[in-house]
Design brief:
Strand order of the largest sheet: 2-1-3-4-5-6
Number of domains: 2
Largest sheet: 6 strands, parallel
CATH superfamily of the largest domain: Glycogen Phosphorylase B
CATH class of the largest domain: Alpha Beta
CATH architecture of the largest domain: 3-Layer(aba) Sandwich
CATH topology of the largest domain: Rossmann fold
Order of helices and strands: EHEEHEEHEHHEHHEHEHEHEEEEHHH
Strand content: 15-25%
Distance between the termini: 30 Å
Shape: globular
């Protein structure tokens, strides 16, 4: 940790453009968010380059413009390891902003280590901004991921995914590396089965990344699926195009998460006009409300995580009401007009919430 070079005490008053640094190729929420911010900054004509980071890596920042700000898309605890072998020139003389995401209202103590590497923190939701503010008072800015700024149309192609045209598709998408318990796939399966039983006209598509690393989690999911003929599990890695196609092909996107720092999949679904059934709590409330999504009621309780990522003092999260979720699924599935109307309201709400205005204001604030 002591090998990593910290940011200058004070940043320059103005910067010419911005560089995005992070795990640019990683198949994860953080990797996808970094690529998305790259596209957004390019759309605003302020992107000056990208800089891939990984543990133990050593790059050459000499090719990067010296007068550009740096958006460090790495969560605080990982920063020292990511920067341990990087030259001092990566941070020195620059405005450095940390784009951080976290899923609980309380931030672990080990996040404090990241403060010496950044001048400001950008949080993608008001939920995460409130969690970071006690850690860095006055240094936290709400900058939602500007998905509407870079949204590209996708023509649904069910045949490419082997999805039949004559069934209603409910999709659940998660990376098991992002915590099995927080993503809560068992609740999604339970709600779907309670809503539809074995109805062949209703299909639950479980798209789970990272399954090879967590075989015990996959075993629990397969046990919950049982012999249901209308639940399909896909656990291999898909391309970004295939993932975008899945969302576009879905009739409903379901998430009974315990907590989200933002919720990229839900945001994309809403921007595509796909109705969402989701736990009504945490970071996804940045771009949805009771009029634009089927919010599932929940109860708050102490976070208990079998991987100990979220087992922290004062940490709590939500447990969604499975029966309420089942009722919402049935209502949307049985009434195409209701489904279309909710999708249209969700699309309008998400477009307004994620239009990039906060990003533009943040850039202007720093003279970028």
């Amino acid at each position: 940790m002591m090998l990593a070079t910290k940011a200058d005490a004070a940043p320059p008053a103005a910067s010419r453009g911005m560089i995005v640094a992070g795990e640019m190729a990683r198949v994860s929420g953080l990797g996808e968010a970094a690529r998305m911010m790259q596209s957004a900054l390019a759309a605003l004509a302020v992107l000056r380059g990208t800089y891939p980071l990984h543990v133990g890596g050593k790059g050459d920042p000499a090719s990067l413009p010296a007068d550009a700000a740096l958006l460090l898309h790495v969560n605080a605890p990982s920063i020292p390891l990511m920067l341990a072998r990087e030259p001092a020139g990566l941070l020195r003389g620059r405005l450095v902003i940390g784009m951080w995401n976290w899923e609980l209202p309380v931030v672990p103590a080990d996040w404090r280590v990241g403060l010496r590497f950044v001048h400001e923190i950008w949080a993608p939701s008001a939920f995460t901004a409130a969690a970071f503010e006690p850690l860095a008072p006055g240094r936290v800015r709400l900058v939602p991921y500007p998905l509407a700024l870079i949204d590209q149309p996708v023509e649904p192609d069910r045949a490419a995914l082997g999805l039949p045209d004559d069934v209603l598709v409910v999709s659940f998408v998660a990376n098991l590396g992002a915590s099995f318990m927080r993503k809560n796939p068992l609740a999604a399966i339970a709600a779907f089965r309670a809503a539809f039983g074995a109805d062949p006209g209703r299909l639950l598509m479980l798209k789970l990344a990272g399954g090879e690393a967590f075989p015990a989690d996959l075993a629990k999911i397969r046990a919950a699926m049982g012999d249901a003929p209308n639940i399909r599990l896909e656990s291999e890695t898909w391309s970004s195009d295939a993932m975008h196609n899945l969302i576009a092909c879905s009739d409903i996107v379901l998430s009974l998460h315990c907590a989200e720092g933002f919720g990229l999949v839900l945001a994309e679904a809403m921007l595509r006009g796909v109705p969402v059934v989701a736990t009504g709590w945490s970071g996804n409330m940045q771009f949805m409300d009771e009029s634009s999504a089927a919010l599932v009621p929940m109860r708050l309780e102490q976070a208990v995580d079998d991987r100990a990522i979220y087992d922290i003092a004062g940490g709590y999260w939500a447990m969604a009401d499975i029966e309420a979720a089942a009722r919402s699924l049935r209502q949307l599935a049985d009434d195409p007009a209701v489904r279309r109307a909710l999708g249209a309201r969700g699309q309008a709400f998400a477009r307004a919430a994620l239009d990039g205005a906060a990003l533009r204001a943040a850039l202007q604030r720093h003279g970028i």
